User: Which sequence fits this backbone?
């Protein structure tokens, strides 16, 4: 999960650089960050599954994180 988070930061930097560059670079960066967000959401889901039913608060928190990641992904696609 840590590696994916670092990848997400790097992808976000590339997305910002792409916005100042050309459309092709921006599209490539947006696609890459979307893929990374999907990987991150899957990691978080696996973590929530591993928590088990004895930690419902932690499951809710991880579910909210996945929801937020999905919302970010939608905004990026709408660029």
Assistant:
């Amino acid at each position: 999960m840590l590696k994916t988070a670092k990848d997400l930061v790097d992808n976000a930097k590339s997305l910002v650089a792409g916005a100042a560059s050309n459309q092709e670079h921006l599209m490539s960066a947006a696609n890459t960050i979307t893929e990374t967000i999907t990987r991150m959401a899957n990691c978080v889901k696996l973590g929530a599954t591993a928590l088990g039913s004895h930690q419902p608060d932690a499951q809710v928190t991880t579910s909210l994180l996945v929801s937020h990641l999905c919302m970010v992904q939608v905004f990026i696609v709408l660029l």
